[in-house]
Amino acid sequence: MINYLCGLRLKKLGYKSNKIDKDLLKKGIKILKTDKFLNRELRYFLKNNKGNKKSLNDPTDPKNWESRSKPGIKFIKSPEYKIYKRELSNIRSSSKLISGFY
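and the corresponding structure tokens:
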């Protein structure tokens, strides 16, 4: 998949290209097309020959985090979330006291 999508770029950087297994490539593209986000980004890349910095989940957004104390549970559904919100509120309040910080 990487050779198909980025082969010319890799070649310019001095990497050797592997032979593309067409059956495996078709399977990979089929998998990408089953995901709405990945399919849209693949089409954009193929049409414009450039990507972007989008990700499936924003790693800075707590709704995408998992609970440390309860694996498999979303962070926002865990007891830790209340503590996090309280601490974040305290930090924001304190930072307002520092001129120009917040």
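(Above: one complete record from the training split.) DSSP finds four helices and no strands in the chain.
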